[in-house]
Amino acid sequence: MDLTELVRLSFVEDIGPGDLTSDSCVPASATGTGRIVAKQSLVVSGLEAAAECFRQQGSTLTPRLSDGDRAQPGTEVARLSGPLRGLLKAERPALNFLMRLSGIATHTHRVVSAAEGRVRVVCTRKTTPLHRSLEKAAVRHGGGHNHRHGLFDGVMIKDNHIIAAGGIAQAVAAARANIHHLVKIEVEVEDLEELREALLAGADVVLLDNMDDDTLARAVAVNAGHAMLEASGNMDA
After folding, report:
1. 230 is catalytic
2. Contact, 96 vs 46, CB < 8 A?
3. Active site residue 158
4. 105: which of 80, 117, 128, 142 fits an S-S bond (Cβ 3.0–4.6 Å)?
């Protein structure tokens, strides 16, 4: 979704017909300044969305850092200026964007650091509705990478697709017949037998789902370099 529209709808949800508190307590002519300061170690993400919140309320956010920068407790992330009513109306939606997206970036950085370059860390489609582009950008800010953006830009055959198609081989064959040659086909498997079926069917990528470390190691041996392997679930940093 377009960022301008997303922020506009955020204000429709939060302010509705008006901010009863700010409009009744703060003079319309009053202006002021403010700061956004990190309270813990974090990776910054969401500055564009936060700036748009203040812009739509007639005030200004001036970044002191960039998305992807690391901040320590007490670090000034941004400065604010403008009408006090606008600053107060924009404050919470802007912080909601910054806090959630910086949280995603910070956690991603932690996982990427734990991986020590041995694996490529990618995100999933399990995003907040309408916030996908922002959340996927936050993953990149944290040093991770994006998987497919949505259902429209990649084939990923999961358990329910396999059931509906009548089996792994049937699902892969049907997908291969209906997509163009530049699209890779990924199959999610839950055990080594399904892995063998996916490889035999010609899957380009296989997602090893919720396997323990021993099974993952055996899966790598079974694959023997034939397909790209991904692993998801049952693991942490």
Report:
1. no
2. no
3. yes
4. 142
